[in-house]
Design goal:
The chain has eleven helices and nine strands. By secondary structure, the chain is an alpha+beta fold. The strands form three sheets. The chain has a five-stranded antiparallel beta sheet with strand order 2-1-9-8-7, with helices on both faces. A two-stranded antiparallel ribbon has the order 3-6. The radius of gyration is 19 Å and the shape is globular. The relative contact order is 0.18.
Length: 285
């Protein structure tokens, strides 16, 4: 494990060190940075970031439930593609006058709610998608309503229905990336659509270096903003990330800052020597 040096001790003293639950020693500076961001930003922030190669995790409020909003569409797409693999569905199937592939593109690229509900209905409703997740031992996510019903319900950002914890969301993403939920062809199809996401350009992507590969899905409700997906570092390391922001002001900016902190933190941690890269960015105190 990389040794923390005086510059990191100075960093902890500057921003305050929380009690760390899961970050490895070399990434505790990042968890501290994210905790500081969450504590100084109005509202309620949940973050999880997982290195898909090493399994190293950083989380803030990682076990707390947040609304999924439109990030649930990743699970809807995954369920449909899994059924295509088993011959129970077809991407050329006509649903509501359009092919399933057209609906999936509208759902993931433009976050079309009607397209999503057509797919959910075709799959047998929210309970069938929930059953599929539970059969694969994916816990911490709840799919209770279709999008129309969710939007028609009285807004409660602490409702456990249709919710996920940040850690549960990155576990779903990890399982998708690892090939345990989808075969390589289906996984590649899903990631291609997520890479074209047109919503929330002021969130995860906003502060990352130009050209950084990102496959993601956003979610939005009144008083709530989220963004989940994958970030690829220059080293080729892929991160599964989930950013949930409830209440407070300028939530997209908070997510953008958190995503940049995650990108920088993992990038510097993976460089050798770690402290050289870190002091280059922040200067020697």
């Amino acid at each position: 494990m990389r040794r923390l040096t005086g510059v990191l001790v100075w960093f902890f003293a500057l921003i305050g060190t929380p009690a760390f639950a899961e970050a490895p020693a070399g990434l505790q500076f990042l968890e501290s940075r994210l905790s500081s961001l969450a504590n100084t930003s109005p509202g309620n922030i949940g973050i999880a970031a997982l290195d898909l190669k090493t399994g190293e995790l950083v989380a803030v409020h990682g076990d707390e439930s947040f609304p999924m909003a439109s990030t649930v569409k990743v699970a809807v797409a995954a369920n449909y593609l899994a059924q295509v693999e088993f011959g129970q569905r077809d991407l050329d199937e006509i649903i509501g006058g359009q092919t399933a592939s057209q609906l999936m593109a509208r759902m993931l690229i433009h976050s079309d709610n009607h397209a999503t509900d057509l797919l959910i209905r075709n799959l047998g409703g929210p309970s069938r998608i929930q059953q599929w997740l539970e059969q694969r031992n994916i816990t911490g996510l709840r799919i209770d309503r279709n999008i129309a019903d969710l939007l028609a319900s009285k807004r409660d950002l602490y409702d456990v229905r249709d919710s996920a914890s940040p850690k549960a969301m990155v576990e779903l993403l990890r399982r998708l990336d690892s090939g345990t939920l989808l075969k390589p062809q289906s996984k590649a199809y899903l990631l291609r659509l997520m890479a074209q996401c047109q919503t929330g350009k002021n969130r995860m992507r906003a502060l990352l270096p130009y050209g950084t590969p990102v496959e993601h899905k956003t979610g939005t409700l009144s008083g709530y903003t989220s963004d989940v997906g994958f970030i690829t570092l220059p080293s080729g390391h892929r991160l599964a990330v989930a950013f949930f922001a409830r209440s407070g002001g300028n939530r997209p900016a908070t997510i953008a800052a958190a995503a940049k902190a995650v990108y920088d933190g993992f990038l510097y941690y993976l460089r050798s020597p770690f402290t050289t890269a870190y002091t280059t960015q922040y200067g020697t105190p």
